[in-house]
Design brief:
By secondary structure, this protein is mostly beta strands. The chain has a single domain (24-380), classed as Distorted Sandwich (Beta-galactosidase, Chain A, domain 5). 8% of the residues lie in helices and 38% in strands. The protein has five helices and 30 strands. A nine-stranded antiparallel β-sheet has the order 11-12-13-14-30-24-23-18-21. Strand 2 and strand 3 form a beta hairpin. Bound molecules: alpha-D-galactopyranose. Alpha-D-galactopyranose (GLA) binds next to strand 25. Residues 349-381 are annotated as: Disordered.
Length: 381
């Protein structure tokens, strides 16, 4: 998908790194992901960590929350860093994770007051964010243990993750059977394919909540990263971060990322929307809309290391969250404290509060239908 992928492999060779050490396509072809014990939940349930490597990208995934616990990519000199925030132990994930690296469901982002009406019936889902429901409620998919099945297919390696959410869980109707596939390609791309079916009409909005810092987790602010988002509009919110329903132009606002822009550039503008979000915590209306195949939507670059993340998705929306609630109370994988703005999230999704916004693309899933969504993360340097 990306010409720059060739430079990743060629660059590593130039830096004297052998194919085996970076896990190039050839070296990892057919290699099954490796499982190890990560820890135990309070009730004794074992949580496993799965290690995968392909095409120059290395990742560790937990059975708890489908969490990407670590994602390592090289910089322009071939030096690896873990570019995703996380913890080194299961206890911290359970006690205090702000969704680090996790799969989010049933409904990524917010539902106003946790209420919606579907086919004439009123539902109340779990409220866990002030007056609203966030990321599926107090015990969303990020806090569930998933069944994990490794695979190798041609030059791809990956994991299938399965979770069945019972009828009524967190207040949502229908038994929802979810399958998420993480694939690492021979180019080092990380692809996520989501699929879900239900036995009653329900709402679904699945996403992934990786906190990116392309200079390496724990290395400081992401304000000098440069970001481009292919979106001319965004969804302004009220003080509870629920969309007003308007699709507002980004032109002339701090939300204009149509050309690559330093994230810190407009972050301190006294714009009402930035005051509501304590920074950026907003959904962009992607120009491409819903697409049957993943299309390019955003590029994030750290000029200091050269590490670049390019994203493609089938989804119509992208939540860009500038790490506003990181407050120096969490100690990450490398032993460093995470402070405000030390990472950002780019969550591909349908728009927040869609169940209450008839004009937004629908998040309703009915029996007989299959929910599908795909997002690709392509790395270069
Ligand atoms: C999402 C939300 C934010 C915040 C983070 C986690 O990005 O939109 O408001 O809750 O998750 O802290």
């Amino acid at each position: 998908m990306d010409m720059s992928r060739r430079t990743v492999i060629a660059g590593a060779a130039a830096a004297g790194i052998t194919a085996a050490t970076i896990g190039s396509a050839h070296a990892t072809r057919g290699r099954t992901p490796v499982k190890s014990l990560f820890g135990k939940l309070a009730d004794g349930t074992k949580v496993y960590s799965w290690s995968l490597a392909n095409g120059g990208t290395r990742m560790k995934v937990l059975s708890y929350g489908g969490v990407v616990q670590s994602l390592e990519i090289p910089d322009r000199r071939g030096h690896y860093a873990n570019v995703s925030l996380g913890f080194d132990n299961i206890e911290d994930y359970v006690a205090s994770s702000p969704y680090f690296g996790a799969l989010i469901g049933r409904y990524g982002n917010r539902i106003g007051k946790g209420q919606f009406t579907l086919d004439g019936k009123a539902y109340q889902v779990n409220v866990n964010d002030g007056a609203n429901s966030l990321h599926g409620g107090a015990k969303g998919f990020d806090k569930r243990v998933w069944d994990v099945e490794p695979f190798t297919k041609g030059s791809d390696v990956g994991l299938h993750l399965y979770y069945t959410s019972v009828d009524g869980e967190m207040g949502y109707p229908g038994t929802l059977k979810v399958k998420v596939t993480y694939t690492l390609t021979k180019y080092g791309d990380w692809r996520i394919d989501y699929a879900a079916t239900t036995d009653k009409a329900t709402v679904v909005n699945l996403t992934s909540h990786v906190y990116w810092n392309l200079a390496g987790e724990g290395s400081g602010t992401i304000e000098n990263h440069e970001l481009k988002i292919d979106a001319s509009r965004y969804t302004p919110v009220d003080s509870g971060l629920i969309p007003t329903g308007e699709l507002a132009p980004v032109a002339g606002t701090p939300f204009d990322f149509r050309r690559s822009k330093r994230i810190g550039e407009d972050l301190r503008e006294a714009h009402q929307q930035l005051l509501y979000g304590k920074g950026i915590d907003h959904n962009w209306v992607l120009d491409k809309g819903i697409s049957p195949r993943p299309e390019w939507i955003a590029t994030l670059k750290d000029p200091s290391s050269g590490r670049t993340l390019r994203m493609a998705s089938t989804e119509p929306g992208l939540q860009f969250y500038s790490g506003n609630f990181l407050d120096g109370t969490l100690v990450g994988t490398g032993g460093k404290v995470y402070r405000q703005g030390d990472a950002l999230c780019l969550e591909t999704q349908h728009f927040p509060d869609s169940p209450n916004k008839p004009s937004f693309p629908s998040t309703v899933l009915r029996p007989g239908q299959t929910y599908r969504s795909t997002t690709v993360h392509s790395f270069s340097r």
